[in-house]
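Record 1 of the preview.
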Amino acid sequence: MPINENQLDTWSALGSVQQSAATYKTISGVLNDTESPYYLKIFGTFLQGSYGNDTNIYADSDVDTVIRLTSVFYSDTSSLGAGDKANYDQKRSPAEYSLAKFKEEVSGWLTKNFGNGVKAGTKAIYIPGGGARRDADVLPCAEHRHYWTYPTYGEPTFREGIVFWKSDGTKIVNYPKQHSANCTTKHQNTGSYFKPTVRIFKNMRNRMIAAGTLEAGVAPSYYLEGLISNVPNEFFGKSYQQTITNCINYISIADTKEFTCANGIHYLLREGHDVCWSPAKFASFMYALKKFWG
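->
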């Protein structure tokens, strides 16, 4: 039998807000300090992940903060025609600063302020919690522009995102602003059911991991948000029990190869792509989920 409505209502609840907000305020304050070595560069900070998208549950711990360099940006000109590409090449000048230098300075500044527990990981810089402050990850990145046009006169058109390189040299381009905006729109268009539904799926995932029916790391929250965002709006509402049933039934018969991440840009399911969910891991999650739901 499916999980009862009272339990689903509990799982739908938003996790800690005050502590995560205080953590972000502290870390953002350090990152924006006028004494930092990179302060004269143009950059901005914002939350991403579960806390940034209001899909966090009580079991969530790390607060994910992005610090995006905008005085230097990186480009994708693959969609430009020959004339527009020539215009781009003519107007583009080499930068005197780099994302690598920015990341080095951010890491050093965080270590100076939060101690030797600060560690650079594969993607982000980890800051251990202390006192009322939660553990946090800081992702140094730069603005990324995928150009559509670059005319001789007038403004170029482009899709704006972020770019960073993993420690192994892999380039990652992603779109956290679009992800967040689309999640908010989906939430509004489903009578405020979308984000609580995501939280229920995250709690069910955690229960499956605890029971040993699903391996940890198979179903990251980012991909669960993307998965549920593909369910049509009319399948949300009436009750959480009905909504979860509708979501599982729809995903089971849909052409999931055409599903996109919540940003609406990347495909959700593709093998060998750092921004996509492995189809094999997705299949493992769905198998465990159907057994769990009953």
